[in-house]
Amino acid sequence: MNAPLPDVPEVRVVGLPLLTAGFDLVERLDLAMHLKVHGPLEPLAGEHLAALAEAVALRGRGGAGFPFATKLRAVADAAIRRGARPVVVVNGSEDEPACRKDTVLLNRAPHLVLDGALLAAEALGARTLVVGVTRDSTEASVRSALAERGLGNRRGAHLRARVQRNPVRMVTGESSALVRSADGGPPLPPGRKVRTSDSGVGGAPTLLSNAETFAHLAVAARTGAERYRRTGLRDEPGTVLLTLSGAVARPMVVEVPTGVPLRYVLQLAGAPPLLQGVLTGGYHGMWLDAATAHDAVVSRAALEACGGALGAGAVLPLGVGTCPLGESLRVAHWLAAESAGQCGPCYLGLPAAARGLADVLEGGGPTALEALREVTRAVKRRGACKHPDGSAAFLESAVSAFTDDLAAHVLGTGCGRPVEGVLPLQDETPDAEAPSGRKLAVDWTLCQGHGLCADIVPELIQLGPDGFPSAAEAAVPRYAEARAQRAVRRCPALALRVEEDPAAAPRAQPALPRGRGRRALGSGRP
């Protein structure tokens, strides 16, 4: 069984590093080392920054691939039209079990990411920066980096910067979920399709992109467009960060120029010479069969042209010793369990799709296969977020890529191979996410509605329309224990207390089927 990936796996580079420069010198680039490796950075005016992003064809690296210059201009236009200060948000909520590239950047090169975010904030005139994270190590690294720059969430500061910690869940990395949590709400998609460039954190125009995107912006601002474009393909210059796992000898994050053959990257991680297929883009990505993967090259356009996806930058090969549809079934059950439970296509449709694939593997025949296809078609483009769409695309891709294996299950007695659990899953609650056995309670006889508690632990306490906490108590996960105690100490009315919660129990994950033989900028200014 493939063990869950560590927060910071091995890091390799093909060619000259852009984002991972200095990784061979130290484990983590603090501000002094960061400036030695990358050099100083001068601010750019808004249109100059947008023109730079356009010149290097910079697109979001979180999955959607939206042009960064377009997003930057949209936020600037909305801010001018409304006369509002925009907000900049770094999405470091990398919660997919097969992805670690953004986590690596925020743990090992946090100042490169902050450079890009602060460049954008300066260009837009933003006065608020939010960095969304979900892991202990990432939170500690970002908080330390902000402290090194003298940045914090202090009232009256030129720029207020804070870290938004959310639980490790697939849906918490969705942009609207991060915005909602930054506003003090639950880290779940709200179900309303509103562009963050129009209305994001606090209702203000918000520039939101993932950590790798901001890091590339910082590199391009230092090198200039002409030099940046010397690396990679002409129409898609620069490098990409990929997370290699699955059937590999050494799970790793690797920085490669666009245009490198995918087979070379797989060999670098120790993938087997004979493959059944390769999952590209992660668990919302697409499968490539072995022949297609052999000829594919690393770029967004090239992968899409051959039926794959760059997506979140995860690449997972499968060897010939495991059932590929059985492996896909394990992921389908996990995706269903990661539902926010807020809409029918996700809450009902994804479990039904997982059961449909299980029926196919159990010998349900053509009827079961057609039922599976009907369910996956039904959930697409109807969800409150993109989770149903990505999950359905993953299942459809699996059925299309492994036609021989599918025929063996539908028309015969199965492929005869076991399910080895090669694709990594987060099948247990991380220690930091487990309940601490305590709860944060509000004494209504004392509470005066100051609201400081909601600023300190927004994921536990949300304020109602009257300005008072909307709930009397909240279970405290381990990662929030220290801040819960700080909220108690900061309450002017002494209306908060942390007490034992005997009803608390670790969150149980749904059981997964076992495989059987036939189943499947702030540069430190004073």
TrEMBL record:
Transmembrane segments: none
SMART domains per record: NADH_4Fe-4S
Domain NADH-ubiquinone oxidoreductase 51kDa subunit iron-sulphur binding per the UniProt entry, residue ranges: 325-369
SUPFAM superfamilies for the chain: 4Fe-4S ferredoxins (SSF54862), Nqo1 FMN-binding domain-like (SSF142019), Nqo1 middle domain-like (SSF142984), Nqo1C-terminal domain-like (SSF140490)
Entry keywords, A to Z: 4Fe-4S, Flavoprotein, FMN, Iron, Iron-sulfur, Metal-binding
Claim: GTP-binding is one of the keywords in the record: no
Molecular function via GO: 4 iron, 4 sulfur cluster binding; metal ion binding; NADH dehydrogenase activity
Pfam families: Complex1_51K, Fer4_15, NADH_4Fe-4S
Disordered: annotated segments: 178-201, 499-526
Cofactors demanded by this protein: FMN; [4Fe-4S] cluster
Membership in a protein family: Belongs to the complex I 51 kDa subunit family.
Protein name according to UniProt: Oxidoreductase
The species this protein was found in: Streptomyces longispororuber
Source species taxonomy: Bacteria, Bacillati, Actinomycetota, Actinomycetes, Kitasatosporales
